[in-house]
Amino acid sequence: MNDAHTPLYESHLQLGARMTPFAGWAMPLHYGSQLAEHHQVRRAAGMFDVSHMTVIDVAGEGAREFLRRVFANDVAKATPGKAVYGVLLNDAGGIIDDLIVYGRAAGQPGGYRLVTNAATRRRVVEWLGQSAANHAVSIRERPDLAIIACQGPHALRLFTAATAVDVSGLRPFGALEHDAWLVARTGYTGEDGVEAILPGEQAADLWRRLHAAGVAPTGLAARDTLRLEAGLNLCGQDMDETTTPLESNLAWSVAWAPADRAFIGRESLARQRSAKPAQRLCGIVLEGKGVLRHGNRVITDHGTGAITSGTFSPTLGYSIGLARVPRGAQGRCTVELRGKSTAARPALIVKPPFVRHGRRVYQ
Rounded to whole angstroms, how far apart are CA atoms 272 and 270? Predict the structure, then answer.
């Protein structure tokens, strides 16, 4: 089966992108240098095509109560012009997906807009459909829309210059609607910036205008090193349906109040919260040469764990990763690189994020 194309596919080819399959889509891996693209986002501004992600509009009389049921954070926080991050849980408290919910102004075609991951699309759509029984709600996928993320310390200024849409007054997780665009101060890099959701037929023009304003096209490879430096989870790798938010450094994204909000997975999660989870997700810094990779065994004084995401950090100049380890593990540990005890290297358990605004911040 051929990979699907986003509305920016031809734009990527024109810029010399190396394309790669990702979650059923043909996506740009890089445009010549992953390293240069990473540094461009940390130091100035870069733009990403994230149109492969799933956009879903939820509307109707029962939309608010429906989302308060399926979303572990409280969608009541997603008032018009505000966005909320959180997770969808299964009955056992496992993470189906992480997503952002945007509140929309009265009179807009959708009461709420959800942006979820591409790899989980089918599972999320099915789960929402099953959970919608007995709710007066409509759930509509929006394959007609594209998403462009503009990220970096100069991103707000350059986006405003390129579009005449003034985003300087947006607060983090704030959003505005301009004609058919929804622009929010959100992202997946740990830098400042915005994400614009807009009609697919307008995406190429916005891409050209941002490029002309000095925003560098940036591929999936740099997006992954940026998000890992920022300590941000990747669904399906750092968390999945077998792990809960309490085991995935996402306890902060669960809204326990009010006590009578019976969101899906709450009972199972409450039991784990009371007993305390046996594992937790932490940061790992490798001391010396080598690169941490997914699946590497982590040996601690409290037992073993595993690297869930690992890479070489372009900003820091050494390898970092996320790892699921026994709850009491801290301080120094050992990581077996390449699956071999003979390739064991000393490492340090830390609290992510690793980088913020281009500087080391972990402890």
Answer: 5
And the tokens for 88? 């969808």
Q: What residue segments make up the domains of the chain, in order of their start?
A: 1-276, 278-360
pLDDT tens string 92-113: 999 999 999 999 975 555 599 9
**CATH assignment, 1-276:** 3.30.1360.120
Residues in the chain: 363
| % of the chain at pLDDT higher than 70 | 98
Site of tokens 């968390």: 239
Give counts: helices (H), strands (E), the chain.
Answer: 8, 21
Q: Residue 40 pLDDT more than 90?
A: yes
The confidence band for 128, taking pLDDT boundaries of 50, 70 and 90, is very high
DSSP state of 82: B
Q: Is the pLDDT of residue 338 over 90?
A: no
Peptide linkage before 353 cis (omega within 30 of 0): yes
Q: Full-prediction pTM beyond 0.70?
A: yes
Does the bond joining 199 to the residue before it have cis omega, within 30 degrees of 0? Answer: no
State how far the Cα of 200 lies from the Cα of 151, in Å rounded to an integer. 20
In DSSP terms, 199 is beta-bridged to 145
95-103: strand order across its sheet: 83-89, 95-103, 112-116, 54-59, 138-141
Arch. (CATH architecture) of 278-360: Beta Barrel (2.40)
How far apart, in whole angstroms, are the C-alpha atoms of residue 41 and residue 217? 10
